[in-house]
Structure formats: structure tokens, C-alpha cells
Design brief:
Length: about 160
């Protein structure tokens, strides 16, 4: 019963309104400029996103890290791991992010075409360091599933 209630609450919190206006960002420019290890800040539109924005007093509700396209990832083991979580074309630009109720997931960049975005690039991060960060993120895919996110959100909200 607790699991069904939890799933219902998660569905209600993460449901995105049907009508999405075009975001304030130039998505085509984001698509052209984004590089592996860049962080994409997203101003989400779900109820959970609005709670996070209100509590943090920030326009951004979550972040995702760009890992590139599967076809460009040299390591075969990493491409295999990604293929377990993403079955689309290998030319698809991908992000890794944490989602409420889902855990660490792979998301196509195009999913955020109509959202308000900000692209952040780490300074002084060498190619070897980028490869280690991407390796770390890919190896976390599928982890942290369960009710922990909902409890964290409730704890975050009540502290406010």
C-alpha cells in the first residue's frame, strides 16, 4: 500500500503540464555549443520543480551533465552500459541526470528543447579529467532508485 501511495505521489509531483511554451533559451545554439562534461541547468515545470525553485529561490530546478553521443564514446564497455539505459540512435546527444522516482538516468538532449536552459562549462578540466567524470557518471546509471528521493523532497520542503 505504501508503495502504491508513493508511486501516486511521485506521479503527481513529476507530471509536466501538457502546454509547454518555448523556453527562453536558443536551443539550436545550446545544441551546437554543448561539450562533454558541460552541465545543463533546467528550469522545470512540474510541481516538484516549482517546490525546488521556491525553496532554493533559484530559477533552476535541476541539472544534467552532457556525456556526448554514444557513437563518439571510445570505450566499448561504456557504450554497452549506455545501451542498457538508452535504445535510441547512436548519434543522439545524451545527458545523465537524477530524476525523482527513477534514479540516475540517460536523457536525450532534445527532451529539453522547450525548456528554459543555461549551459555551464567547467574551467580547467582536461580531457583525461572529463573522461573520468563521464566514466563515474555512466557507472552510476540505474542507481539510487526507490523512495529516498520523495523523502528527500519532503524533508527539503519541510525545512523551508
Amino acid at each position: 500500500m505504501f508503495k502504491r501511495l508513493n508511486l501516486g505521489i511521485l506521479d503527481w509531483l513529476t507530471r509536466i503540464p501538457e502546454t509547454k511554451d518555448h523556453g527562453l533559451s536558443d536551443f539550436e545554439r545550446v545544441r551546437q555549443e554543448i561539450q562533454p562534461c558541460d552541465v545543463l541547468l533546467v528550469a522545470g515545470t512540474s510541481k516538484a520543480d516549482r517546490v525546488i525553485q521556491a525553496v532554493s529561490q533559484c530559477a533552476w530546478s535541476h541539472a544534467a551533465m552532457f556525456i556526448g553521443r554514444p557513437i563518439d564514446i571510445v570505450d566499448n564497455d561504456l557504450r554497452t552500459i549506455i545501451s542498457h539505459f538508452f535504445t535510441g540512435p547512436p548519434e543522439t546527444p545524451l545527458l545523465i541526470e537524477s530524476r525523482l522516482g527513477e534514479g540516475i538516468v540517460v536523457t536525450p538532449l532534445d527532451q529539453y528543447e522547450h525548456d528554459h536552459l543555461r549551459l555551464c562549462r567547467p574551467k580547467s578540466l582536461h580531457d583525461k579529467d572529463k573522461a573520468q567524470v563521464i566514466l563515474f557518471a555512466i557507472n552510476r546509471l540505474g542507481s539510487y532508485r526507490g523512495e529516498g528521493y520523495l523523502l528527500d523532497l519532503v524533508r527539503f520542503f519541510f525545512a523551508w
